[in-house]
């Protein structure tokens, strides 16, 4: 399946929760989910109650849309989490939160994860002093992330920081200075996710 390129506000309405896919716009009255918090489509008011499978599927789709990953990528994360020690759901969310594009977004450098992926793909981000252009790169505890020291990179990130009003999660620390930087204090946990997610429903679906 190709990456979704349609109106992202439809995804929030379909999943029944605000996924913050359009950055700062999601915090304003212009947010489409706030104005129309019903599923998209002409027969939205005629739909019946979701089946048990539908409830499980919607939870998985919500996580995929939130992190911007495709089905094949998501299955890969599930397989890794299933082989790892500990609770599979918690490990799955940790792997998704460790993605570099997610970390860049949570630092406030990209208004959305989509924009954070663009920053990484275009070489604006460094990890431990080396350029990383892979959005799915798995960060580790102690990693130091900086914006590349060049005019265009700094302009993009500083403009986003000026519009960002959200607090940093506990697993991240901002490094003060002329060049924006951040550090992973520890590995993220399932409790660090900023939207409510029932991981058990996802594991039940994927394990079938």
Tell me what the structure shows.
The structure is a single chain. The chain has 208 residues and is an alpha+beta fold. The chain has two domains: 9-96 and 195-206, Ribosomal Protein S4 Delta 41, Chain A, domain 1 (Orthogonal Bundle), CATH 1.10.1050; 99-187, RNA-binding S4 domain (Structural Genomics Hypothetical 15.5 Kd Protein In mrcA-pckA Intergenic Region, Chain A, Roll). The protein has helices spanning 9-15, 32-35, 52-67, 71-83, 88-97, 100-106, 113-121, 151-163, 199-206; strands at residues 125-127, 130-131, 144-147, 172-175, 181-184. A hairpin with a 5-residue loop joins strand 4 (172-175) and strand 5.
Q: According to CATH, what is the class of the largest domain?
A: Mainly Alpha
Q: For this structure, what is the CATH homologous superfamily of the largest domain?
A: Ribosomal protein S4/S9, N-terminal domain
What percentage of the residues does DSSP assign to strands (E)?
5-15%
Helix content class: 40-55%
The radius of gyration over CA amounts to 18 Å
Number of helices: 9
Please give the CATH architecture of the largest domain: Orthogonal Bundle
Question: What is the third-level CATH name, the topology of the largest domain?
Answer: Ribosomal Protein S4 Delta 41, Chain A, domain 1
- Spans of at least 5 consecutive residues whose pLDDT stays below 50 are none
| Silhouette | globular
The sequence of SSEs as H and E is HHHHHHHEEEHEEH
Sequence of strands across the biggest β-sheet:
2-1-3-5-4
How many structural domains does the protein architecture include? 2
Sheet having the most strands: 5 strands, antiparallel
